[in-house]
Amino acid sequence: MIIKNVELETVCGITSKLPDNQLCEIAFAGKSNVGKSSLINGLVNRKALARTSSQPGKTQTINFYNVNKELYFVDLPGYGYANVSLKVKEQWGKMIERYLHESQVLKAVFLLIDIRHEPSANDVNMYQWILANGYEPIIIATKADKIKRSQLQKHIKMIKTELNVVPGTKVLTFSALTKQGKDEILDLIEEIVEE
Ligand code: GDP
């Protein structure tokens, strides 16, 4: 898939009505700092379209990026900030849940996990939550440049085990630094959109 143009079309806050999009949606979820903005920017060849996480707490919105007037990338709010109140955490949860529940055109959810670390309890919850809403999460192991190539498979296995993934779950790797994995992710998105 070649991305020719992309624009931020809709930003939804906690009380906003979700857009009634006609094009299909591909969503990205993950804890804050996992590299979600860097992945989205990398996929669409832009340096700073999606915000990067220098300001914790700023991402309480669901952002819809129109890609090629063909589909949407949906940037879900990052979870797992240590320094936010329970109330704010609950609001994030509700927002994500409402989106997963209500979207009529959501085709796939990518769940991002830092390749270096064991998934957190929040990651496991998010994985289960996506499943419970009827989607099989596709895992993207981010920051792949941070480990040796010879260690990749071991880390992928660890992520699969800790998340207790359903059989056949796809795990792709990505590095925003080297762009490793970019073409595979875009090819998969194209396949999903054409299904
Ligand atoms: P977000 O909170 O999930 O949107 O995460 P960001 O995209 O803002 O990334 C968080 C931090 O990790 C930033 O300092 C990024 O520069 C860094 N980062 C993101 N992706 C990569 C990657 O693939 N490789 C390396 N080495 N650093 C990354």
From TrEMBL:
Q: Entry's CDD domains?
A: YihA_EngB (cd01876)
Which cofactors does it use?
Mg(2+)
Q: Name one GO cellular component term.
A: cytosol
MF GO annotations: GTP binding; metal ion binding
Tell me where in this chain the EngB-type G domain is found.
22-195
**Ranges that cross the membrane:** none
Q: Gene3D superfamilies given for it? A: P-loop containing nucleotide triphosphate hydrolases (3.40.50.300)
Q: Which domain of life is it from?
A: Bacteria
Question: What keywords are annotated for this sequence in UniProt?
Answer: Cell cycle, Cell division, GTP-binding, Magnesium, Metal-binding, Nucleotide-binding, Septation
Its GO biological process annotations read:
division septum assembly
Cited InterPro entries: G_ENGB_dom, GTP-bd, GTP-bd_ribosome_bio_YsxC, P-loop_NTPase
Q: One matching Pfam family, short form?
A: MMR_HSR1
- Could you say which protein family the record assigns here? Belongs to the TRAFAC class TrmE-Era-EngA-EngB-Septin-like GTPase superfamily. EngB GTPase family.
Biological role: Necessary for normal cell division and for the maintenance of normal septation.
UniProt xrefs under PANTHER family: ENGB-TYPE G DOMAIN-CONTAINING PROTEIN (PTHR11649:SF13), MSS1/TRME-RELATED GTP-BINDING PROTEIN (PTHR11649)
Task: Tell me what this protein is called.
Answer: Probable GTP-binding protein EngB
Organism name: Eubacterium ventriosum
Report the gene name.
engB
